[in-house]
Amino acid sequence: MTAPAASFADVAFTYPERDGFALAVPSLEIAPSERVACVGHSGCGKTTLINLLSGVLVPQRGEVRVGDVVMSRLSEPERRAQRIRRIGMVFQEFELLDYLSALDNILLPYRLSPATGDMVAARRRSRALASTLGVGHLLNRKPTRLSQGERQRVAVCRALVTQPELVIADEPTGNLDPKNASGVIELLLEHVTTSGAAMLVVTHNHELLKLFDRVIHLDTLNQQSVAEPSP
Amino acid sequence: MIVGPIYLAFMHARSHGVQSVILTLCLLIATALPLTTSMLMSRYDQSLRDRAERTPLVAGSRGSRFDLVLATTHFRQASVVPTTMGFAMDVQDQGLGIAIPMHIRHTARGSVVVGTGYEYTTLRSFEYAEGGWPTGLGACVLGSRVAQKEGLAVGESIFSDQEDLYDISKAPAIRLKIVGVLETTDSPDDDVVFVDISTAWLLDGIVHGHDEAAAIAQDDPSMVLNRQGADTALSGAVIEYQEVEQGALNAYHLHDDPRSLPLTSVLIIPDDQRAETLLKTEINLSKLNQVVSPSRVTDELLAYVVRIKSVIDAVSVAFVATNLMLALLILALSYRMRARERQTMTRIGCAQWTIPCMFAAEFGGLACVGIVLAIALSFAARALAPELMALI
């Protein structure tokens, strides 16, 4: 049996400085190449879940694994190194850096950490990815000179350029109209599937759920869900 | 792998040009101001002391001793009450030393014209790049920087600046023939035009040359103001010679007693300590004249400068502190404004040292640029020090 791309085992997390919120996930597995959507009402712990999965947060109890690595047992620098190497992130507003060109935005993980590897190969891969996603001719442009759709594509390139085992997208359709939202999800699914990575997408958009292999309802999954404090 | 953060820092600084320029300017000014001020002050101090120590005594009419010394040693055109050639002759006649007349009033193409005697060249140990000291009326020697600035050489000429272009009663501009150019001395002597003392009076219009009075009266009787026997008083409208021709030397004359001819000051080289004491005593007893030791006056002057410098230093400290605080404020605001970018980098998985390195590289890089520019500016100020000294 193949090891899961990511898993939670008996995980419990609370914010020490905030009362009233707890996330408990007894068991959750995401298989390699599996495309999973995570839904739930506002404040149920979706962002906490992906922060635990990516090692930004560490649970008080239980194990979080990405591939064969137990993220929850690693030190902060080790978790950062694993995150940048194994996980690709797509953010709600894409979070491209305005002062960098599209190419430099795609290569950002390589500028941020030596753990990511060879820059020459990454540059070649970036150009290939950008061409595949239809932004190959825009690599020298700054994000402010790109359309919303082009920025989405650049953000997807950045998430995939490190050839991650897992892609996490935190409400990537949050600010988009239905047509564009569908476009982003389809783009992500198509290219993540091609790369062979597993994918976890946090979304509020129920119309898109049919596109995924599996949907996790966090309200049901979280046995101790009370209410996540507003950020 | 520090290249990544440095690259990001560089790209951010380049993209936020105005912020980077302000930050660099803050650091540039904070560094350049105290550095340049201190350097110029020390150069000013050294220049004044060196010159004063090489000038034994300065005598002149009573008035500001600072103006008298600065006019004589640094050729400042200060409002010094003039003394007379008679005073210089009297000092010389006492046989206690050498009296060198100094006349500092006129300019030629903006450079001060110094009228003096040959003894001055011995006192300053002049060496000539070309030519030598003028022996006659209407000739001059250029200081090295004047020659360089004006692109003039021996055999050419330079016009003195006319005092008042629209007043024909004033002395006309005189064409001075260049007979020598001095070697560089790195002193105020480089920035002036030297003439013999008689030429200085020619520039005053006291010594002058024109056609014979009888010929003028015959050609244009309206030029005659008065006749008394053989003497003829001519109008100020009579056109005087503007150039001293060898053949017309006899036409030059003066109407006053030579003892009354004006001088700015008299440089005195006493024979010995005793002679110096005697000269000081005798001249300073007079109600009209004074004699001072330039080194002592300079010490006094520099004591004021030191006081001013301490005020400038205090202002500089406040200014530097303000600039550094402004730079830190810009840095702190930039750090806060980039909170979202930092969060994104952290969520992507940047190494822990990446963000501090990125900010340090940006601030450090701009600081380096500011400091390098400040040092370059200070070197430029040092190179231009003589010109800046002249302004001071």
What would you say this structure looks like, in words?
- The complex is a heterodimer of chains A (231) and B (392).
- Chain A is globular, with a radius of gyration of 17 Å.
- Chain A has helices at 46-53, 76-86, 102-106, 108-112, 119-132, 148-160, 178-195, 218-221; strands spanning 6-14, 22-30, 35-39, 61-66, 69-70, 87-90, 166-170, 198-202, 214-217.
- In chain A, the strands form two sheets. A five-stranded parallel sheet of chain A has the order 6-7-8-3-9, with helices on both faces. In chain A, strands 2-1-4-5 form a four-stranded antiparallel sheet, covered by helices on one side.
- In chain A, α6 (148-160) packs parallel to α7.
- The longest helix of chain A has 18 residues, at 178-195.
- Chain A is built from eight helices and nine strands.
- Chain A starts with 5 loop residues before the first strand and ends in a 10-residue tail after the last helix.
- Chain A is an alpha/beta fold and 231 residues long.
- In chain A, a hairpin with a 2-residue loop joins β4 and β5.
- Chain B is built from 13 helices and 16 strands.
- Chain B has helices spanning 3-15, 17-53, 65-74, 85-93, 118-123, 144-150, 197-204, 213-219, 273-285, 294-337, 339-348, 354-383, 385-391, and strands spanning 57-61, 83-84, 97-108, 111-116, 128-131, 139-142, 157-159, 175-182, 192-196, 207-209, 224-228, 231-234, 252-254, 262-263, 265-270, 289-292.
- Chain B is 51% helix and 19% strand.
- Chain B has two domains: 3-47 and 301-391, no CATH class; 57-207 and 254-292, no CATH class.
- In chain B, the strands form four sheets. In chain B, strands 1, 3, 4, 5, 6, 7, 8, 9, 15 and 16 form a ten-stranded mixed sheet that branches. Chain B has a two-stranded antiparallel ribbon with strand order 2-14.
- Chain B is an alpha+beta fold.
- The A-B interface holds A 54, 56, 76-77, 80-85, 87, 89, 91, 95, 97-100, 104, 108-115 and B 1, 4-5, 7-8, 11-12, 14-16, 340-341, 344-352, 354.
